[in-house]
Amino acid sequence: MTLLQRCEEGVMMLTLNRPEALNALTTQLLLDLAKALEEARDPTVRTVVITGAGRAFCVGQDLGEIQGKEISYKNHLQHYALVVERIRELDKPVLTAVNGVAAGAGLSLALAADLRLASSASSFTTAFSRIALVPDTGMSYFLPRLVGWSKAFDLIAFSPRLSADEALQLGLVDRVFAGETFQEEVLTLARQLAQGPTKALGLLKQALNKSATATLKEMLECEADFQEIAGRSRDHAEGMRAFLEKRTPTFTGE
Ligand code: T3D
Known about the structure:
Layout: E1 3-8, E2 11-16, H1 27-39, E3 47-52, E4 56-58, H2 63-66, H3 73-89, E5 94-98, E6 101-103, H4 105-112, E7 115-119, E8 123-125, H5 139-147, H6 149-158, E9 162-163, H7 164-170, E10 175-177, H8 182-194, H9 198-211, H10 216-231, H11 234-244
Parallel strand pairs: 2-3, 3-5, 4-6, 5-7, 6-8, 7-10
Antiparallel strand pairs: 1-2, 8-9
The protein binds ligand T3D.
């Protein structure tokens, strides 16, 4: 099985499972990931975590799989695009738990998520230019938005290998946890999100997606539309009641 999938307490944990190949991406693994992200639409799933088995998060395309073959990159990249689109379109938080090295399209996958949690053992490299390719799987979209235009050029053109702390300083990742406690910290954060107001979090995600290309006027309208929806949710009513009763709200995601 190229992908391990389990769901507990509203958290769907997806583990890229080719540890012997540093979780390099094959067509099968990409198809499995796309399918799992489709299944994550089930309302019992309220947060998704993508991580890697073994010492790596993901080193991008399995170069052995395509070496010497007459493939059309344009066609092949459709599998990658489907995964990125499903991550962005899923109306609930998707976290990447970067347990080890993230390279090439493996880094792109991490960038596509809503939050990147990194182990102190992780490292990051864009990798594409080292094999004379251009960034793909959304890297040219997400990277400049996270680190700025010229830093994105720098990271792609020179492809340095960054430590977790360097990645944190650049804004490439959001939190760094010590290797020994990493899995526990990831689960704590994922559970916290899974117990959150899932409908509002899904709308927040849609709003951020839209803000990448929208005008202020469009965003003001979008916020009003989304607030209309969030304002009618059960969780909003519960949040208001809990505030007035000075207790912690119990959100159901509805
Ligand atoms: O449509 C398309 O298919 C195009 C899509 C492209 C998307 C992409 O992702 S292109 C970019 C692909 N990825 C890379 O170019 C990364 C290549 N790997 C590296 O630069 C380094 O391996 C790392 C920086 C990721 C890790 O370095 P290190 O020192 O921790 O490990 P290592 O010794 O380099 O690698 C360990 C083994 O994994 C080694 O094999 P060996 O010698 O033990 O038999 C290495 O060849 C193998 N490996 C690493 N990355 C890949 C890989 N094998 C196949 N594909 C890989 N991507």
